Amino acid sequence: MGFYSDSRTKSNRLKAGRGKVIAKWGTVVVLSALVGSGATLASVTGLQHAGLLSSPSANAVNVPNSPVGVSNVNVNINDGITQVVKQVEPAVVAVINYADVSNPFSQQTTMQEQGIGTGVYFYHNSQYAYIVTNNHVVMGAAKAAVVLQSGKHVTASIVGTDPYTDLAVIKVPLNDMRGVQPATFGNSNNIQVGEPAIAIGTPMGLDFADSVTSGIVSGKQRMMPVEDPQNPQQVFDYQAVIQTDAAINPGNSGGPLINIQGQVIGINSSKIAAQNFEGMGFAIPSNEVIKIADEIIKTGHAVHPALGITGQSLSTVLQSYPVNVPVDYGVYVMGVSSSSAKSAGLKSGDVIVSVNGQVVKGLADLRTALFQVDPGQTVTLGVYQGSQHKMIKVKVGSMQSPLDAGSGASGSSSSSGGVPGGYGSGGVPSAGLPGAQGGY
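Above: the chain sequence. Below: its structure as tokens.
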């Protein structure tokens, strides 16, 4: 298993023999179209001569002598999805990851494309346009480049990456994005299951750049692993993500998931690719993207608040063995590493049921609650120790991204100032993660 890593998809994978294939199928399609249109034209002409069919209006349907009342129908192709795509698509770019590859025969090193994903332009200052994508799209890059909607290739610098959330920020000179408006981010806390969701990306490489798929929001908080792209057995963390049935394919990683208002509500990152599974893609919620991207722009890395514990959702623990607490929800504490948490009285076997009065049903709720505070602040935990309920105050620590900003990529640097508030802007385990746990 492991992430459906779009960084492993070559943009030129389909180029070999592509001309012959296109010519072959193009001939079939053209011939089919000509035959079909010819037959239709002959039929329509014959019916018109027979007086059985009148010339149709360009945008209306008229059925004479019908027993059912039919009124003229005006068809407007400028529907919601079309407008959203026109609005956001210019800000969506392809992101190419280049690696230094050694030739064992010539003893020379050349730079070759090792994968392609997607990114979305979301912020700019006076010099640079900033693009958010997935960490696994640019991880290990010796060089990164973006391909604009116009087809222009632009060398990019990696500002910083965050493996814990699988997010990264890259930048290009602002002049290269002149005339393009940054994408606007929405509040992912306000999304509703069943609302429309639109994905734009680069599935299967540049031959299919700017592909649009649509579906709905299938779920709001699904706990999924964030894996090390270079070692799928290593899980950095678990995060709450948005589930969608909009098609997410290799190359879509790092691209936007958009609501019907044209706001980015998530960054597409993975899908379940196991046999018999279909339409289960996942996106990092926009609120988390905004927070992490802002930190990366300010400092080159992200810092995450942490209690200094390892935990597991109590509901999954109860599937294996009983826990002596009077609730069936919360986070079961498996271990405590923070001296602050230890001195506050938190210990293994405790069950955390609230943070600052906010109910914690499981790992997703704990993560959400912790992301609302900053390292160094003190939180009040509602904890069950056996049947006894206690309120424990713990000073929140931090865990920093384990990788340096822009590791290995061209001209990496951090930018000061950060993003102003409210700026405008793959296969994974096929089961329900019964053993999911993480460090918090």
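Residues 1-64, 404-435 have pLDDT under 50 and may be disordered.
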